[in-house]
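Thread: Modeling a multi-component assembly for a lab meeting

Hi all, long-time lurker, first post. My supervisor asked me to bring a structural picture of a complex we are working on to next week's group meeting, and I have zero experience with this. I have the sequence lines for every component (390 residues in total). Could someone generate the structure of the whole assembly? Inputs are pasted exactly as I received them:
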Amino acid sequence: TSPAGVTPPTTPPGSPTALLPPWPIFRVAIALNEFFEAAAVATRPPPVQVKTLATAYWQSEISYSLTKSGAIDEVGAEGGVACEDVAAKLKLVPDFLCRMMRAGTLSGIKLLSTDAQGKYSLTPAGDMLRSEHPGSLRSFMLMINEETTKAWRAAGTKSLSSGQSGFKEAFGKEWWAWHNEPSRATQMRQFDAAMRSLNADVSGALLVDWAPPKEDALVCDIGGGAGHMTAAMVKHYPKLKGIVFDQPKVVASSTKEVLAELGVSDRVSTVGGSFLEPLPAALSSCDAFYLKFILHDWADEECVSILSAIKAVAKEGSRIVTTDFILGVDGANMEMSKRMMDINMMAANPPGAGERTWEEYAALFARAGFAKPSQLVKMRDLVSTVVTEV
Ligand SMILES: C[S@@+](CC[C@H](N)C(=O)[O-])C[C@H]1O[C@@H](n2cnc3c(N)ncnc32)[C@H](O)[C@@H]1O
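Re: Modeling a multi-component assembly
Sure thing. I ran the full set together rather than chain by chain. Output:
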């Protein structure tokens, strides 16, 4: 039960709520992590600090290589396997793959471990990169280390003087325009899968510290992507119904497939459209409009127009529930991760996109004409939630 006194009526097997420790343990763990991280920084001589920063991307490259090459999946399938056998199975160069796999065991990476015979197994972190892991982060690892790396480089160089997004500088178009091209279907689906893979802990955190306005509410996930969050909600609330609203291409492919795979198509329907235009009347019966990782993708003007479009169809008493990386509400380490995500938004999304403080979110709602004050729901995660009643 959360501090708000909310217990989801059903906790299905494999519920992501099980990933969360109780609040007191979470707070102690965060404080310990802050302390040890501060101690590590204080004891690291400046030249070591600088060299570590210069080469930090090497760790991502090794992790990406082990994932993309299929080595992680192969080790996961076999367990206790020699790197030469993995190389033979994947038709890769044994010397190179063995050195890459060895690097995967190093402190700071630790995706692989070896036994006394030098045979490889996955660590719990490595296991999360397996394709078949129920909460697999494989798609996220791939997405963040493919086009996004070029967008980051452009953001850190060209964008600083042009004011354009890193993605536009690197690829000539903004993220959604580029991903919506017919030839980018693979990347679009990889993005949807990456969003799904990021959802497990966030949905667990939301479900323990927020509850829908009523048990049989209609929750409309605006920009809901593959529908993974709505699916998690309806599994915990057996009378809940959902609508996933997203771009027509997304709902017609990833969303339909994922809702069917998760067995919730009977209670969750899809609507295709754009939240940058007036919303369809089908959304006027929603009791809650849920938006996760939507507002941080856009500049204030677009955010106000998205919120205004929702307000225009929303019935009185319904709630707008937004989950994002809200700045200034956590300790230093968590704030650092959120600041990194802010730069990621600068790299990937149009100018003006980025992470905001709680006051900035509240101001967006006020600008969109919401009269009731927004409420902040802190969660056991990097993300927090803002609830605003219509
Ligand atoms: C960062 S993703 C978040 C997806 C999902 N809410 C989640 O947290 O996993 C942003 C979503 O907004 C959708 N989107 C982008 N532009 C849109 C538009 N104009 N109208 C509707 N959806 C849009 C994308 O297709 C994508 O699914």
